[in-house]
Amino acid sequence: MHKILFSPLEAIYEAKNKKSLGYTYLVLLVASLLAGLTSIVRLEALSAATIIIGFTTFISAFLIIMLMAFLLKVSLHILIQKQGFFESLTVLSYSAFIVAVGYFISAIILLVPSTNISLAIISAVLSSLVLLITTVLSIVVMLRIAQELYEKDLFTVIVALIIVNLAAILSVSSSIQTFLP
């Protein structure tokens, strides 16, 4: 999995050539586990409640990525008459793995005690840099792996990913508004 972070082009070509659904599920599982661990680390207290929150985050991340992979598969099938759950799940799992690693490292950096202002600023800047780098890498890998696995131009891939991500954002946004007064 280190290739996804440190040698993404090689990881993309391996995914394209091997087409291992088992490995893709492993990447998704690790990404979801990192998301759960990140929520525990960010809460900075180990209790039954934080473990429940971490487990809920783990399950939610796994299921949301699975659902989004299905929606991406449907979108690309309609747009380009090509479908494949493996391709869609690989696109989103690799991307989620990179972001999950970034958030986990960021959470660890922010554990540094902020006893003085200089240390607090340094940890905030380092955390922001890690998130910036991993978010950019995640988006670029998502675009490139979708382009490689579906063998389509970048524009078509971007349109399909915008459709799925915008739908997810709008759904969450409207759900949140339901609970607001």
Features:
181 residues; mainly alpha; 0% strand
Q: Overview of this structure, please?
A:
By secondary structure, the protein is mainly α. Helix content is 87%, strand content 0%. The longest helix is centred in the C-terminal third of the chain and has 34 residues, at 117-150. The termini are far apart.
Question: How is this fold's topology laid out?
Answer:
Layout: H1 2-6, H2 8-18, H3 21-43, H4 48-80, H5 85-109, H6 117-150, H7 154-179
Helix pairs in contact: 2-6, 3-4, 3-5, 4-5, 4-7, 5-6, 6-7
| Rg (C-alpha, Å) | 18 Å
Q: What is the overall number of helices?
A: 7
Uncertain runs are none
Following the backbone from N to C, one meets helices and strands in this order, namely: HHHHHHH
Brief synopsis:
This protein has 181 residues and is mainly alpha-helical.
